[in-house]
Amino acid sequence: MARDESATGNLWLAKELWELGAIQFGDFNIGRTLHSPIYLNPRLLVSSPQALGRVARVMKEEMETMLSMRNPGVSPFSLIAGVPFGGLHLATAFSLASSVPMIYLHPRKDGTGDVIEGNYIPGQTVLIIDDLITGGTSVVETTQFLRESGLIVRDAIVLLDRHQGGKERLRANGVHLHAMLEMETLLNYLMTHEKITEEQFRRAINYLADPQGHEDPPRP
After folding, report:
1. 32-36, 88-92, 101-105: range with lowest mean pLDDT
2. What is the pLDDT of residues 117-130, one digit of tens each?
3. Average pLDDT value for residue range 204-213
4. Dist CA 1 CA 184 (whole Å)
5. Is residue 38 over pLDDT 80?
6. CA distance 103 to 121
7. pTM more than 0.85
8. Could you say which of 1.10.10.10, 3.40.50.1580, 3.50.50.60, 3.40.50.2020 is the CATH number of the domain covering 5-208?
9. For the chain, is the Cβ count within 10 Å smaller at the N or the C terminus?
10. CA–CA separation, 77 and 64 (whole Å)
């Protein structure tokens, strides 16, 4: 597939997310994150089969490239695990593109915990897939459950890293994070292509530098 200049560095993904309305600016409370000036919803990729398919193909190519290195940047894996719910559609698309079997966690009907959906053998290595990472809680919890079930987890891949401690938390749990797109790269693309104002860019960059101290909701 030919790529133009705007597609290098996975900037095509930034463009797709913007055009799908998956990036919003304002003042958002997201889980434990208060007053975030940016909200991301990569799940909207399901509205564009072409974009979702491209994500899966590029993800597959990046994994294959890292595996082929003399010092591989990712451990060989024979299963992928989608993190509910944001990672399920990505893992499904990746599984179809790569022919690697998929598993995922599903809550038990009696509310006593999770169960692994899909066939697996203890000792298999699993690549975890999610749409984005903030503090890393969902990926870490998925990792712990899979490990307790006898599976090996060494790597996780996400579409977007919000740079709010997730990468460091995963590293502390023995998981290497691979992100297709970094938040600062996304913001630079939007600013350079005049999709957002300088004020929106500044607030988002300041938020990345100090998420806890960010108390600058938009003026009415």
Report:
1. 32-36
2. 999 999 999 999 99
3. 79
4. 26
5. yes
6. 11
7. yes
8. 3.40.50.2020
9. C
10. 11
